[in-house]
Specification:
The chain is mainly alpha-helical. The protein is built from six helices and no strands.
Length: about 150
């Protein structure tokens, strides 16, 4: 079995400006508008996805120790507010700064990029399933929304 022994610095680069971040994540005005117009529908399913997400991370052998004894309802509330802003399409510099701060908190408490990406893969899969189920066969709409959500996450 291969063990990754990389012990690099996971800190996000703070010398990338706001416009560069949005460009790199492929978040332009069209995708922001798609998120904004779809936010209400996404928020309908968010509580279920949050429940599933925290059930997953708090029970999986790789991540459960990070969540034992934690107030999951409080975490769900904070995560829900973060996602509400994320799906509003309002990627302001303040939002970006708050996301950096959240990343720093994750790093401090041991939520590594591996755990973070695994958790977000879980969420993205749930959201993609929801989008496909609710697009009503409109492939273009479905593809556009999946791409906007994927870029945002």
């Amino acid at each position: 079995m291969h063990t990754n022994t990389f012990q690099g610095n996971y800190k996000m680069s703070n010398n990338i400006n706001f416009d560069q971040r949005l460009s790199y994540y492929q978040i332009g005005s069209e995708r922001r508008e798609v998120l904004k117009t779809s936010q209400a529908d996404i928020m309908k399913v968010l509580p279920t996805i949050l429940d599933d997400f925290y059930d997953f991370v708090s029970s999986h052998p790789v991540s459960k120790d990070k969540f034992q004894g934690k107030a999951l309802e409080g975490l769900k509330k904070v995560q829900g507010e973060h996602w509400r802003t994320l799906f509003s399409g309002d990627f302001s510099p303040e939002y970006t700064q708050r996301s950096i701060e959240i990343g720093q908190i994750h790093e401090r408490i041991g939520i590594t990029p591996f755990l973070y990406m695994g958790g977000y893969t879980f969420v993205l899969t749930k959201l993609t399933d929801y989008i496909i189920e609710t697009c009503g066969g409109n492939k273009k709409k479905c593809k556009t929304l999946i791409r906007a959500v994927s870029a945002a996450i």
